[in-house]
Amino acid sequence: MPKKIVIIGGGIAGLTAGIYAQKKGFDSTIYEQHTLPGGLCTGWDREGCHIDGCISWLTGSGENHALGKIWREIRALGPDVPIYQPDAFVTVEDEGAVVSLSRDLEKMRRQLLELSPDDRFEIDRLCDAIAASKNLALPLLPPELLNLLDRLHALNSARAMQQISRQFGESLAQYAASFRHPAIRRALTAVIPEGCSSYTLVVTLGNICSDNGGRPAGGSRAMALRMADYYRSLGGQLVLDQAVERILIRDGQAVGVELCQEPENTEVRADYVVPATDLHVTLSTLLEGRFPAAMIDDRDRDPVTYPTPTSVQAAFAVDARLDDIPTDLDVPTAPYTFEEQSRERLSIRHYAYEPGFAPPGKTVLTALLPADYAWWDELAQDEAAYEAEKKRLGDDLVQAIVSRFPQWTDKVRCLDIATPLTYERTTSAWRGAWMPYLQTPRAERLFLRGQIKKVKHLYMAGQWLMPPGGLPIAVLTGRWAIQRICKAEKMAWRW
Length: 495
Known about the structure:
CATH topology of the largest domain: FAD/NAD(P)-binding domain
Number of domains: 3
Radius of gyration: 23 Å
CATH superfamily of the largest domain: FAD/NAD(P)-binding domain
Shape: globular
Number of helices: 15
Helix content: 25-40%
Strand content: 15-25%
Structural class: alpha+beta
């Protein structure tokens, strides 16, 4: 009889774990609380349009990238899935100047130098670091399973990371201030949150400039559904709309889970349990706080050093094709109010390259606004006020967009406003965060092995286990969980 594995959470980490479990001959079941698989890697439909809720860029989208091989191994990507590579990661308009951070690194260098020759030293330093970061790679095996050669490769990559990290250790806002041209400063802070270390900017642009940061056709939901279909084809059981109450532990060993059901909860026994959930859910809910992690509590009490990124995503339908403008724009607008503050800039993305996202002749456009979870949580105590604010914000943003693109007057309508509470409700994400703690200059990196010393046969997976989080860590840790189970079962890992 094959050993039974219960996986909690049908996001990318859980689906990855399930696929590899089936490939290795285990009998696995994934329990997912939502009605769709994918977790944060999702999208939804409104008024005949599709709104993508996750992928800004997919690390490892290139076929020759180590992660790219895994994405294709688990059928998230494949030969029939085109990869869209935007010409520029972002195009910024600022006081009459236009800056495009091109995915062609030398083109980016030339354009920045033409705009601001006085910034030559910093431009060259940035571009040289981006070039160096292209060769950085995450290990494909858990650290404890690396052979000597793999350890040497991992050590060399870690040293390269540390060297770049030392050179770019200040916050992104501080680093951007070293450039003289205001438009370049604006462009650099439009890529990732300003509180992050500038090292994160370098690595992000390294992925983009190596063609390993593309966008799979069909978007986030389509990618998750491909994985779910593949998992089922391997014989895996994906149970949707089914929450797990707790992990069952007997004599220091995980022996199954208790499902949330009416009128009485149901116990499901298993040889191994893989919680592929938000780390807070795993520790506080599934394990009932029996194994507290001090390093998590300390980080939660210090949101300045360890912020978690939360956003409001506003989606719009535009009665026009937008093929003639860059997909990702940061532009000045007429003033609008967000979280009781006046704003005059907006970061927008359109999906003209995804014709299936909107009816013919129309285009879906989204705006992403960094948000304060506490502000929305307090507002939501009054449901009517919460809904009214979303309606007001949508109307306000329509006017802001039209102020920059007057040719779209009477052609833009708001489809949806997703707040941090939306993501918290649908995915159980901690405070609605779409990634774990951001890497600020003062932050100590959090590396968790995915195991609890006092609990055998439990192997965690998910983006919260190590930086930088996101889809790459989700897929790696899902794979690692099964690799660790294979080691416990004295099974060889081949492929």
